TrEMBL record:
Keyword vocabulary terms for this entry: Phosphoprotein, Repeat, WD repeat
Alphabetized PROSITE patterns for the sequence: WD_REPEATS_1, WD_REPEATS_2, WD_REPEATS_REGION
Pfam family, one: WD40
GO CC, any one term: nucleus
The protein's name in its UniProt record: Anaphase-promoting complex subunit 4-like WD40 domain-containing protein
InterPro entries from the UniProt entry: Apc4-like_WD40_dom (IPR024977), PWP1 (IPR044285), WD40/YVTN_repeat-like_dom_sf (IPR015943), WD40_PAC1 (IPR020472), WD40_repeat_CS (IPR019775), WD40_repeat_dom_sf (IPR036322), WD40_rpt (IPR001680)
Species whose genome carries this gene: Aquilegia coerulea (Rocky mountain columbine)
Amino acid sequence: MISAISWVPKGVSKPIPAEAEPPSKEEIEEILKSNALEASGDTEDEQDEDMEIDASKKINEVSQALAAADALGKNSETTISATKDITDALRELDMDHYDDEDDGVELFGAGVGDTYYPSNDLDPYLKEKDDEEDDEILDMTIKPSDAVIVCASNEDDVSQLQICIFEELDNGEYNFYPHHDIILPAFPLCTEWLDCNLKGGDKGNFIAVGSMEPAIEIWDLDLVDEVQPFMVLGGVAKKKKKKSKKTSIKYKKDSHTDSVLGLAWNKVVRKYLASASADTSVKIWDLVTGECFHTREHHTDKVQAVAWNRHVPDVLLSGSFDHSVVLMDMRYPSHTGIKSAVTADVESLAWDPHDQNSFVVSLEDGTVQGFDVRAAASDPASGCKPCFTLHAHDKAVTTVSYNASAPKLLATGSTDKTVKLWDLSNNQPSCVASNSPKAGAVFSIAFSEECPFLLAIGGSKGKLQVWDTLSDAGVARRFGRYSSRNLDSAPDA
């Protein structure tokens, strides 16, 4: 399944990603040490049980070997025949004289291999090898015009990030292929691309990953064959099993203590990353120091999603299974925020990129509710009342995405296996297009900001889909004027 999708802006990725250096001896020792923490906490009874199992296993292996030997001994004819065959084969090979030179045999024959080429350029074998190397370099090259999509996926208990290339060809067609993978230690639940200068330069190319574990991993997308994240925020410091067979867990300072369900990077204050967790808290992390500097515990159930307001970068929105969304202004950390009620568990939320006062919340009951923060100004204690409630899908609306170019164009994805596009103009939503992308239950969708009518879709079938929404006549008719592409064949806007 694909659980999360993130687009990487064009021209950000290195043309040819570098190969990661293998871990140092100290790093390997540290990994082994951390992996041994849990084992070292086993009780004596558990260790005795393991020893008994190992001893029993060895006894069984010995018994099987003796039984096999006994069976061969009983069938003497079979044994003699097999021995004779082996002896004849060895006699034919004449292994006793293997190293003796034979004057009748040329160690280096006068065939094709003897051909001498005055230049490596004329040697067809070297040329073929060079061509293969050139093809490999070409396959690994990321052009500035290539769109890059990062998918968090899980298949056969293997969790990974798939970095995929989506390129537009000269004839207007698209070519889509995987570039490289990053193996993850835990089931991924959310991702967030960020370009904070973590390595000291002006910008970077990183992806933050939240998973079933309490740690947040930051991976460098400009490295291939990387086995460790560039940075880890929070996580487990030590596990120890007690005699009661209960596991005692010690977490790193200010860490989440449960799964990380949502992430949001602040594109204005680029060192800030917000996280939402099943431990009911919201945390703000400083990516430069790698530390959490603020924690909010204003929800009473799992916090599923967080989002920064791109127009007012100090304002953060969070949504929870406690049927509420909370609006926080981080300039006033002691303020409890403005809490607004919704009708079901929050699945996702998003700020309108064209209106600093508007946001939408998608819910487990298949509805999408729209809000205007100005409605809460008169009575902050009562929160915001929804401007509209849209019955968008038959099942949970797991994901939403605003179009960055076309105002009021919203995409919704659902576990009912459909993706729909909506025009939210005047707070009166109308369906513009509907698609069943064969992705299974849809868990994540995302519009590209640079190719704004391309919508990436991921779901339970584990195969990434990209929908060119302008290919739909209804979308082209209503929103085509916001595209830079030639739409002569499409109906007039």
